[in-house]
Specification:
single chain; alpha+beta; 9 helices; TIM Barrel; 9-stranded antiparallel sheet; 508 residues; Jelly Rolls; Thrombin, subunit H
């Protein structure tokens, strides 16, 4: 057990110090190009590859080559002796085949992480719901005997009880010998695929066996031998992994709600990996559809993330699956926008001054192409204003004098019609009806349309009036007609956007 803890500790310590004379394989390509993460469904591969090319992104596949599903031949009906063990426990009393509660003597193994709580006793697997420390014993509650199709049986007090390693994916792990067999088979299968990038998250789990970091190096060496032309990426840098990896991406999923954390974290990470001559990726971004818990990913969210990648000159991983691409109304615009940002980043078009400005976690940016030139606009995204639909007056505060864009969201029940915004510069109105589950989108070019909550266009709207805000505070009011449904009013929110002075640069 202590040896197992020491291995985990050393793996984490390994990222802090590297031998200066590390040897590099001569044909390892190091790059910060971004990638689209495939969803693993073979029928989607061609579609995603084409869409990735539209955005200028490589297609990558996340690989977990040491996971053993609980319905595997290595688990049921007779569990392999090569399932990875965290350590040994000792029964307090003999067990018959019907007991669903029993005890073992106290062990520090219970300080190690566990997800599905699996014990191996002879040829039986037992799972438990919880444990309780009582004096010098641990009591197991909610046990399932003969778990995962293994056979229930009686066990003597002297029977060896192993606590098994498991994973958040609700799988088990192999020891070094079995891991090598699984890796060989997986590496051969991947050699026949078309993925240009192989992504190894949870790299530390390959070193949980007694060989530690050596096992990580052996795993990557096997993958490289069968896939010599692939880009290999992992989420952990160790002495044994460094010679094989093209870059590091720590698998952090970012969104705009983490604005402060992103810059504090990324500054530290960038300095670390630069000091170890390893290309570094900023993390991952997830484009998703609307559901009951969140709104669909918007363009301003995407450009916020792209601006941070540009600021730190780092690539990223994009989760944008085939179903979302087909159902998100802004999918093609998003892919084209990603290509613009990435082309500019990889061609070093952003100046140091631009990058420093974009590192501000609370800054938002928008890139617009006009002719052969690109313009980078600082963008102010307001908070969401909730409308009471009877007498709405607000004080909008813009850092720029600018034409403003709008997003009016209607949710719940009913609808609104003929919404209008009155500012000190005049009134902007929209002769239309917006039903629950719809947006009214008004852009900086003066075009308006109604969409569903996934930004699929339902119809165009002709806006009437003036849409300019002055720098500083402006008294603003909102009016509309309201139609209730089932005696309930719709929920309406408004968000506005303004642009500052553009930074221009030619595209090379």
């Amino acid at each position: 057990m202590k040896k197992g803890l020491a291995i985990v500790f050393l793996l984490f310590c390994g990222v802090l110090s590297f031998a200066q004379d590390s040897l590099y394989l001569p044909d390892i390509t190091r790059t910060t190009k971004s990638y689209l993460i495939a969803d693993g469904n073979p029928k989607d591969t061609s579609y995603l590859k084409a869409k990735g090319q539209q955005a200028g992104l490589e297609l990558g596949l996340a690989v977990l080559a040491n996971r053993i599903p609980t319905d595997s031949k290595y688990v049921t009906p007779k569990p392999s002796k090569h399932l990875l063990r965290q350590g040994i426990l000792q029964l307090q009393l003999p067990m018959d085949e019907t007991q669903n509660e029993f005890a073992v003597y106290h062990s520090e193994l219970f300080d190690l992480p566990s997800n599905i709580n699996v014990l191996q006793i002879d040829n039986e697997l037992v799972t438990y719901r919880s444990t309780e420390a009582v004096g010098d014993i641990h009591l197991f509650y909610g046990c399932v005997r003969g778990a995962y199709g293994t056979r229930k049986s009686a066990h003597s007090k002297d029977a060896t009880v192993y606590k098994l390693w498991d994973t958040p994916e609700r799988t088990l792990l192999p020891d070094f010998e079995l891991q090598d067999l699984i890796i060989q088979a997986q590496a051969k299968r991947l050699a026949g695929s078309t993925y240009e990038l192989l992504i190894f998250n949870d790299l530390k789990s390959y070193g949980y066996c007694e060989q530690g970091d050596t096992a990580i190096g052996h795993f990557l060496d096997t993958m490289h031998k069968y896939n010599p032309d692939r880009i290999l990426q992992a989420d952990l840098l160790t002495p044994s992994s460094k010679p094989y990896l093209s870059r590091i991406n720590e698998n952090q999923l970012w969104n705009a709600s983490m604005r402060t954390k992103i810059v504090e974290t990324l500054t530290e990470k960038q300095e670390f990996y630069r000091g170890n001559d390893m290309p570094w990726m900023i993390g991952n971004f997830h484009i998703h559809l609307a559901d009951k818990n969140r709104q669909a990913t918007s363009m301003e969210e995407l450009e916020w993330f792209l601006s941070k990648a540009a600021a730190f000159d780092a690539g990223f991983g994009l989760f944008f699956n085939a179903e979302t691409m087909q159902k998100h109304g802004l999918a093609n615009i998003m892919l084209n926008t990603i290509k613009i940002w990435e082309d500019l980043r990889l061609s070093h078009a952003f100046t140091d001054k631009m990058k420093e400005a974009m590192k501000d976690p609370y800054s938002d940016w928008h890139i617009k192409k006009i002719g052969a030139s690109f313009f980078l606009y600082p963008q102010h995204n307001s908070r969401r204003y909730f409308c009471n639909l009877s007498d709405d007056h607000w004080e909008w505060n813009s850092p720029y004098t600018s034409q403003f864009a709008l997003c009016i969201t209607v949710e719940g029940k009913g609808c609104i019609s003929d919404p209008a915004i009155i500012t000190p510069n005049g009134m902007l109105s929209f002769p239309c009806t917006i039903s629950a589950g719809q947006y009214l989108i008004y852009d900086f070019e003066g075009s308006a349309c109604i969409t569903d909550l996934n930004y699929n266009k339902i119809g165009d709207v002709i806006a009437e009036g003036i849409s300019v805000l002055d720098e500083g505070k402006s008294e603003v009011s909102f009016t509309c007609k309201v139609k209730t449904e089932e005696r309930r009013q719709p929920n309406v929110t408004i968000r506005y956007y303004t642009h500052g002075e553009a930074h221009s640069f030619p595209h090379k």
